[in-house]
Predict the structure.
Amino acid sequence: MIWQEVEPPPPVLVASDKVQWEIVSSDELGNSVLQRPIWLVDGGIDNDEALKDDQQPVVWVVLDQDQEQQFKDSLKSQFASEPQLPEDVEVTDSTQYPTADQIAKARFRGSDPLPFRSVSRSIAYGETLYPEMGFWVPSAFRQSEDYRFTFTGQLLGNPTNGSTPDWCNWEDFWNGCSDSQYLLEVTPLIAGPISIGLNYSQQESFLGERSDGDFDQAGQAFGFALKSNLGNNFGAAIVGQHLWSPYDKGGPNGSYPKPNEDIQADLGRSYLWLGSAAWDLGFWFGADTPAVLAVTGGLGNGRYKDIQDTQRLWINYGPYAPVGTVALALNSHISFFTEWSGQYNGFGLSVKPLKEVPLTGTLMFRDFQNTSTGIVNCQRGDPDNCRTTVDGRLTISF
């Protein structure tokens, strides 16, 4: 049964020859005591459609205790003056009431199923933006029309070059341990279930002592994203990341750079072939947006390939390996995820603190002691030197 909230509620609660009326007590809704009437129409029929001759919807009016007594008194006075109802009016008793969960769903979803869309590594459920569902692996759904631009500033806990420890003090962090990037994603073309976008990355920050501050040393690179929806709950995508560097500082393919070779674009030329699925889990803990389970999986190369291939062939292209994320958003404000993405494997959380502001903060924890990725990421390539790296980012979409 689909419920739809129709505004405004009728100003005078009287029987109509087009609907069946029934009193629903606030006590029968458990903890969802509502302070104003809500007019819910069975089958998603709106106010205009309820007047059609071939429709006979059933209408529930949810009342608080004072309103309920007023309605009963009103019915008594109506029946006293007109004891015989017209033949085409039926006042019924029913044990099937809209539950608090049905009312919440009606407010959020209306009568039509909502599609899941992509917003980089976040998803949009209908018009509602959720936090990120992973740190490195993007969502495969078609891009949301409401969010064609995504800007990300991120700070990695170490530069994964084998020369620095995972855990540094504050001074050492800014001098040599941190590694920062800026990412911009733009989606100019959205047509039906398909979107085509471009991505830009600046892989060396102008902040800290690890950068000389020149623009041509920024490690710039461009890529693309082709995404599509296969129904409301499933998506598929091909994403190319960091494919072309305008200053030719992305290093060789299939081998390590030569000694003294100037390398700045160091996130790795990569292709990703992805599929995503997401499900509405209902409303948890009294939230006004539903919990969502999101899963993305596929194949990737570059930094997404197996860590032993990265150790052997460096970060650009190379063999493909499985990648994936599993994420649970409790509502549209907080999500938890675990991610397997080649060189960066771990778990994290993402928070979108403000309902109307599309700003998200995300943390990921990786490179735990003796983890397999330590052969590349940790000091001297020794997994025993790993001490849990924390990566963080801020993302805004518009």
Notes: The helical segments are 65-81, 100-109, 170-177, 307-313, 374-377.
